[in-house]
Structure formats: C-alpha cells, structure tokens
Amino acid sequence: MQVWLFDIMMWPYRQWEIPYPFPGRLYDRELGTQLYDGHLALMKRADELGYDGICMAEHHYAFNGTAPSPNLMAAALATHTSNAKIVLLGNCLPIHGHPVRLAEELAMIDVLSHGRLVSGFLRGTSKETHAYSVDNSKARGMWEESWELIVKAWTEDEPFEWHGEHYDYESISIIPRPIQQPHPPVVAAANSAESIEWAANHHAGLLTSFSPTEQIKETFAYYRKYAQEQCGWTPKPEDTGVSRQVYVSHSDAQAREEVEAHATQFYGGIGGSVHDAKAVEYQRLRVSERSYAYKSGPHRAMPMGDDAKYEQVMRDGYLIAGSPDTVTRLIKEQEKELGVGRFLTYLPFGTMEPPQAMRSLELFAKEVLPNLR
User: Taking the domains of the chain in order of start, what are their residue ranges?
Assistant: First the structure.
C-alpha cells in the first residue's frame, strides 16, 4: 500500500474567530511566514522518511485557504525533495480561466520534479467557485472540458485548435512537455455519481474522504462496478485511495490528550461560518438528485455537532489516532474494508501547528509505515 502525506496548510491560529470569507485584518504576516516554513519542513521530512507521496490542495478565502496555489508549493517542493510523488489534490479546474496555462504549469512541475507529478483534477467546493464568481451550474461542464483539454495539450505533438462549449483557442502547442508518458497520472477526488462515472470513463484513479467508512465503501463499490460494467476495465487497489486525519503518539491516551482539541475544532468548525447567502446558494447548485442516490442512506460529509465528538469521529473512521499499534490496526482495517491501495494521512489539521505534526510524522514513519508495506 502506498502512503501519502496530505497537507493543506490550514491556518491554525484562533480559527473560532475567523468567518468566511477570511478578512485580511485577522491575518498575521509574521505567523504566515512561520507557517509556510513549518509546512515546507514537514513535507521535506516526509520525503526523507520514505512517504510515497506528498499531497497539496487548493482552497480559497477560508482558514483552509492559506495555500491557494498548490502549484507554487509543488514547484518549491519539487526542488527540495528527491523521491516522493508530488501530488496535487488538486487544481480546481473551473476556477482556472485558461486550462492551457494550467497544462503548461503542470508540465513544468513534472519537469522540475524529474517526473514525479500526480495531477488531481477537481471541480472544487462551492467556496472555490464562489471565490472566483464561477456559475456553479456550469462548473461541472467546465471541469470536464478543461480535463480533456489539458490532457490533449500534454499529449498532442502538433499544434491544434480547440472550440468547445466553455473554452475556445485558435492554436495550442505547449512547452515544456511532461516527462511522464503518455502524461502524468491523473486522479479525481470525488464522491458524487456524476464525478465517479467521469473518472471511471477516463480510467482515472479515484480518491475520496469526509464520509464514514461504510459510505466510502459504497463509493468505491459504485466506481468499480461502473468501470467494469460500463467502461470495460477493472480498477486495481492502487486506483483507489482514502484520506483520513491521522495522528500517532506513544499511547492511545496520550494521543487523545494531544489531538482531541484540534480534531474537535477541525470537525466542528472547518471553513468558518458562512456569512454570505450567495455562498450557500452555490453549494445547493453543486449536486443533483442522483449525485448520492447510489448510497443506501443520506449522504454524510463533514461531521458536525454531536457527530463531531472524538469517540464518534473515531468510530466512523474519519479520525485515526492512538499508539503505533492502534494506528496500524485501524489503517489496515480500512484498507481491508475499502480495498484501497493508497492511504492519505491528513496532517496537520484543525488548530494543530507544524511542530506538533512533525512529532507524529516521525513516529508514524518509524513505527507504523514499515507495517503498512
């Protein structure tokens, strides 16, 4: 099983005071510099410790949006690491005005990393489309068209025209060319039926998170069934991956003492309270009646209220915390139940700062990672 570190560089300071959108008056420039240094050190250390990949995300305007350009972080990381895959989870395609520019940037990252790029193509959350004033009713079509345009820009040897519904170009011919052939691996992070089907149709890997383990099992079952019955191929374990918040300490009791407050803030308050009615409307437009119809019960995403309590998020599989033995056992249980070949350890999270995450990272690499090989 491959193990990737997933670090979205969340702003950990006094999150409970930060609404959405994150006002500039609450941003501390000195802390921001320290935060970037701490996360870069964490990612570099993950590479040294043998993690298979290092993942970054794109978010905007909220306290999980302090690294709005994962491509910039990936370029920095490409020159500070040697072995781990550089995994972008991803770029939110609808909010990038020019897919051709994005294809060029991603090709540069593949070159800078000597062929280590894994490119996640995401539709993005409602906060992303809201931040860039993208019509959410068009976002899916933009995601799909942009995906196909980027892949063609990577692989087409001769200049070509593109006249689509959302994008129009008289001539496309990018340089540099990606090192990986035919192109860098593409993955989708999704759980709606429409996005699962798109990933299966394009033979792309599927990653998911933020649902109880029992519901994620249904997501992967739908993906595998659709790929086999409608697309004529059978996904392997390495085509699927799950992201979980992971924290390891010397004992279960010590882990809980060290991480519970951070987990409670993460699950109870992620993204800040939304004070913009338009953002709420954007969220409504993201899904259709059939998006989660494949699930046996109502779709469950980020836990809130009583569902966000420590015992409950541990029971539902969102959080994996404890001693090395406990963390190893819980990861292996999810690996077996979900059939995944990639496991993303989301760290740090909530109000946790990079130095505390580093301690968990070191212990995980020493006493958990070998057991997952």
Answer: 2-372
